[in-house]
Write a structure and sequence with these properties.
There is one protein chain. It contains 13 helices and 19 strands. By secondary structure, the protein is of the alpha/beta class. The protein has three domains: 73 residues, Elongation Factor Tu (Ef-tu), domain 3; 277 residues, 3-Layer(aba) Sandwich (Rossmann fold), CATH 3.40.50.12240; 102 residues, no CATH class. Keywords: ATP synthesis, Hydrogen ion transport, Ion transport, Transport.
Length: 473
């Protein structure tokens, strides 16, 4: 029998304090009845003897110390799950907002979940194709991986996220079930509407589950949204055998919400004012990705975060980099040159890439092409630095070739249309076309047999003129 408590001891921002509590437990869901008119939900965040500190999801507006009735539900926050959640849109605490009614299911899951047991993990294999050359070719996303995107304010990470949702697949000839769970935290209404409209118009919404927490929603809800998304992903992956890609944007909004709530609790701040448990909290989200032995499905994560002031040493990207298996970094300079997506190749990497590409997965030359493109593009930076000192005209012929390669690489390999969906073969063929701009002796990262099979030198201006003269004769 549930006990109802009348009145509150204290109200502080999104937190309320209830005294005289019996039988309560950490993260238990609490129901509030405010003035017999408004109903709200809360969650117990701390317990001291008979005192419970409760986060109120909808905010504490209209609540007073005397007009509030509190009832402990006896269970943590749960979400009803079935395969019907595919194609549905929910708010930040799991309520449907698409006018299609609630999810009818007897199965309910605790949203708090657990990181995957390392012993039960299966090593990630196979890749997920995004249709974006800079990702598929150079920082390949592997099933079961967590690969964040480091962005900045004003950079097109929303466009990139939408394009990945529309284009992501397990490959052209793969018949396995694939789905996407998309969670947006602290986004503006127009951004949420952009995602919803884009998914509907592209036809992708049928295999997408959306959780939308808007910027004007209570900040406490932001802490729940990614957990709801990951719980839905785990259900579809490990109970229904689907391969699920989870896109979380924006992790920075989640961390700022955590900082705000931590400050309300009076906790001692750490770096930049964030709580000292920021690392463990992020790890509790990221480590819910992976493949479980004996299960058919997988959960793959792409968390997106905006780096404050483009500072990659900021606590959020810094700690994220420790937990995840690589990163994709967006570059403001490339964005200024109208290159989309403005992915900065050199600081980007995928640590699991080598085990999910090559013969039997993508194509035999994939690893060699990736290594050589990285190496050549690194030399482009050296050539540009030298040109800025002595002038481009004084460069050696080889350095001039590298400059030409770098410009073409940025606009034809990294750059592509927002609706351009490239296959892995198209990506690798473009890579070989670019490598053909350089002398064969410069390609020292590719096996000789692969080089013999795929390398074709590009025709120079003099070659084209000679060929034209021969044809004329």
């Amino acid at each position: 029998m549930a006990i109802e408590y009348l009145g509150l001891s204290e109200i502080n921002g999104p937190l309320v304090v209830l005294e005289g509590v019996k039988g309560a437990f950490y993260q238990e869901i609490v129901e509030f009845n405010v003035g017999h008119e408004t109903k709200k939900l809360g969650r117990i965040e701390a317990i001291y003897e008979d005192k419970a500190i409760i986060q109120v999801f909808e905010g504490t507006q209209n609540m007073s110390l005397k007009n509030t009735h509190t009832r402990l539900t006896g269970h943590p926050m749960e979400i009803a799950l079935s395969e019907d959640i595919l194609g549905r849109t929910f708010d930040g605490i799991g309520n449907p907002i698409d006018a299609l009614g609630p999810i009818e299911s007897d199965y309910k899951a605790d949203i708090n979940g657990f990181p995957l047991n390392p012993v039960a993990r299966q090593y990630p294999r196979n890749y997920i194709r995004t249709g974006i050359s800079a990702i598929d070719g150079l920082t390949t996303l592997i099933r079961g991986q967590k690969l964040p995107i480091f962005s900045g304010n004003g950079l097109p990470h929303d466009d990139l996220a939408a394009q990945i949702v529309q284009q992501a697949s397990l490959g052209d000839d793969n018949n396995e079930n694939f789905g996407i769970v998309f969670a947006a935290m602290g986004v503006k209404y127009d951004v949420a509407e952009f995602f919803r409209r884009t998914f509907e118009e592209s036809g992708a919404s049928d295999h997408v589950v959306m959780f939308l927490n808007l910027a004007n929603d209570p900040v406490v809800e932001r802490l729940v949204t990614p957990k709801l998304a990951l719980t839905a992903a785990e259900y579809l992956a490990f109970e229904k055998g689907m391969h699920i890609l989870v896109i979380l944007t924006d992790i920075t909004s989640y961390c700022e919400a955590m900082r705000e709530v931590s400050s309300s609790k009076g906790e001692i701040p750490s770096r930049k004012g964030y709580p000292g448990y920021l690392y463990s909290d992020l790890a509790s989200l990221y480590e819910r990705a992976g493949i479980v032995r004996g299960k058919e499905g997988s959960v793959t994560q792409i968390p997106i975060l905006t780096m404050p002031n483009d500072d990659i040493t900021h606590p959020i990207p810094d700690l994220t980099g420790y937990i995840t298996e690589g990163q994709i970094v967006l570059d403001r300079q490339l964005h200024g040159q109208s290159v989309y997506p403005p992915i900065s190749v050199l600081p980007s990497l995928s640590r699991l890439m080598k085990d999910g590409i090559g013969e039997g997965y993508t194509r035999e030359d994939h690893q060699d092409v990736s290594n050589q493109l990285f190496s050549c593009y690194a030399k482009v930076g050296d050539a540009r630095a030298l040109a800025s000192v002595i002038g481009e005209d004084e460069l050696s012929p080889t350095d001039k070739q590298y400059l030409n390669f770098g410009n073409t690489f940025e606009h034809e390999f990294i750059g592509q249309g927002k609706e351009e969906n490239r296959s892995i073969e198209e990506t690798l063929d473009i890579g070989w076309k670019l490598l053909g701009m350089l002398p064969r002796e410069e390609l020292d990262r590719i096996d000789t047999k692969i080089l013999d099979k795929y390398y074709t030198p590009a025709e120079t201006g003099s070659d084209k003129q000679s060929k034209t003269d021969e044809d004329h004769i």
